[in-house]
Specification:
Elements lengths: L6 E3 L2 E3 L5 E7 L4 E8 L2 H19 L3 H17 L1 H12 L3 H25 L3 E5 L2 E10 L2 E5 L5 H15 L2 E5 L6 H13 L6 E3 L4 H10 L5 E5 L2 H12 L4 E5 L5 E4 L7 H10 L11 E5 L3 H14 L18 H16 L3 E4 L17 E4 L6 H4 L6 E7 L2 H8 L4 E2 L1 E5 L3 H10 L4 E4 L13 E2 L9 H6 L2 E6 L3
Parallel strand pairs: 7-8, 7-10, 8-9, 10-11, 12-13, 12-18, 13-16, 15-16, 18-19
Antiparallel strand pairs: 1-2, 3-4, 5-6, 6-21, 14-15, 17-20
Helix pairs in contact: 1-7, 2-4, 2-5, 2-6, 3-4, 3-6, 4-5, 7-8, 9-10
Bound molecules: nicotinamide-adenine-dinucleotide.
Length: about 475
């Protein structure tokens, strides 16, 4: 792999101007491995300037040219999938099998779906039959800053990089400083694919540094951000002076509404989904709402599943969960488990401290709280660890009210064999996505949230492409 202290700017790996370094920590053993450089204002300026210089030519490239390059990148990505899986697993702690399948696979799928969307996208078309001489032109927004988190590194990076490049934008990617190595590997792949200089640039740094600098930068036309609601608000404020476009994909506190007529695997599926990726998914179904008549049974099943969930090193093959990403995340999750206990929820599985057999590593016990009520912190706060909250409900109306009782609105889940009820509820819950009976979204589905889970932006497929396009109307064509 390349020298991890370098940045990729204007088609070259360059020595940064920034002099501060940060160790990437393997969360399984708490050992530091490569160091990265935290960029300075000069590094941010260099990358933005390279992207700005490259924009006129890249925005004028043909759709076919962009498709060809993205297809080549797809081949390279597939060829280096194992290397990518190892990198993700080491930097953020995803068990290697999960890294090889879902983590790396998400990046491949988003690239493929973007190429598909690009192929069928009409960049120039009449307003309608009533106005054939009014032409609508979809043009790339310009220089885009892409700021991503650590929990699904290639998922989030590819959901931004692929459509931005497909749209004809030039980009500066600032991956999470906690999981920067997978993004650097992608930069290597982009370099070997033959994209023109300056079209894709990568600068490492933290939120207070490069993140804020990009958000404020007068030559950045759009910031696409995935991460915490806290940082999303800071970016919105920082971007306001220059009126740049801001796309936000933020946190979540998804409800999983389970009715008595749900299929027999609904509870097991819900618990496993909540614990997947060690609970570090913004769309995790973390609040399980269960119809009272089957509540006790659901609590027992959830307890059994949590007790059977193995925890293990990220490097070990198999179906266990790994550590959470960092010491900070570990302490946050421990603090919230403590608050759950002190707040009066019934702890039925897991709890505070590391699981047996672990003295180091950021490992958390798969934890289930029953009888969680809306006044409790663990009801409202995004925990981002393997912690499930279960609450009973009596009526459909109460279930909807509880599901919507959150600042977030990313994904909600409904489990029932009554399709009419599922359709009714899907329209009543306030979230950008609703998954019914364990079926996840198909290729190219729009990913994004309502309320404080986002600001209306959607990623993936055609919607993802449109995030990076301006709409221009021209008369008398
Ligand atoms: P974070 O907000 O701390 O960091 C995300 C990225 O933003 C990092 O690259 C970080 O350096 C940068 N950043 C932080 N503060 C910034 C600032 N003031 N200005 C500019 N950039 C800044 O989040 P995280 O801890 O890396 O990720 C976890 C969070 O992300 C969770 O809340 C999770 O729900 C959310 N998330 C949301 C989605 C989604 O699509 N809705 C997907 C994954 C994660």
């Amino acid at each position: 792999m390349m020298d991890s202290t370098k940045f990729y700017i204007n088609g070259k790996w360059v020595t940064p101007a920034g002099t501060q370094h940060l160790e990437v920590i393997n969360p399984s053993d708490e050992k530091g491995f490569p160091q990265i450089t935290l960029g300075s204002q000069a590094d941010t300026d260099n990358a933005v300037s390279a992207a700005k210089m490259a924009f006129p030519a890249w925005s004028a490239s043909t759709k076919e040219q962009r498709i060809e390059l993205l297809e080549r990148l797809f081949e390279t990505y597939k060829a280096r999938a194992d290397e990518m899986a190892q990198t993700i697993s080491q930097e953020m702690g995803a068990p290697i099998d999960l890294a090889k399948t879902a983590q790396v696979g998400a990046g491949a799928a988003h690239l493929k779906n973007t190429i598909r969307a690009l192929k069928s996208f009409d960049f120039e078309h009449p307003l309608g039959d009533h106005a054939p001489d009014n032409i609508i032109v979809h043009e790339p927004v310009g220089v885009c800053a892409l700021i991503t988190p650590w929990n699904w590194p290639m998922n989030q990076v590819m959901l931004k990089v692929a459509p931005a490049l497909a749209a004809g934008c030039t980009v500066v990617l600032k991956p999470s400083e906690i999981s920067p190595l997978s993004a650097m590997l992608l930069a290597e792949m982009i370099d070997s694919t033959g994209f023109p200089e300056g079209v894709f640039n990568l600068v490492n740094g933290d939120g207070a540094g490069v993140g804020s600098q990009l958000s404020e930068h007068p030559d950045v036309d759009l910031v696409s951000f995935t991460g915490s609601t806290r940082a999303g608000k800071a970016i919105t404020i920082a971007a306001a002076d220059t009126m740049k476009r801001v796309g936000l994909e933020l946190g979540g506190k998804g409800a999983n509404i389970i009715f008595a007529d749900a299929d027999e695997k609904a509870v097991t599926r819900g618990v496993r989904h909540c614990f997947a990726n060690s609970g570090q998914s913004c769309n995790a179904p973390t609040r399980m709402l269960v119809e009272k008549s089957v509540y006790q049974q659901a609590v027992e099943t959830a307890t059994a599943i949590a007790n059977k969930t193995d925890v293990g090193l990220a490097s070990t093959e198999g179906r266990h969960i790994g550590p959470v990403v960092s010491e900070q995340q570990f302490l946050k999750v421990q603090g919230l488990i403590k608050q759950g206990i002190e707040g009066g929820a019934t702890l039925v599985a897991g709890g505070e401290g590391r699981p047996e057999g672990f003295e180091k590593g950021y490992f958390v016990k798969p934890t289930v709280f029953a009888d969680v009520t809306p006044e409790m912190t663990i009801w409202s706060e995004e925990i981002f660890g393997p912690v499930l909250a279960i609450t009973p409900f009596e009526t459909e109306e109460e279930a909807v009210e509880l599901a919507n009782d959150t600042l977030y609105g990313l994904t909600n889940y409904i489990q029932t064999s009554d399709k009419t009820r599922a359709h009714r509820l899907a329209k009543q819950v306030r979230s950008g996505m609703v998954e019914v009976n364990g079926k996840s979204g198909s290729a190219g589905f729009p990913f994004g949230g309502m309320k404080q889970s986002g600001n209306g932006s959607r990623e993936g497929g055609v919607w993802g492409l449109e995030e990076f396009l301006e709409v221009k109307s021209v008369t008398d064509w």
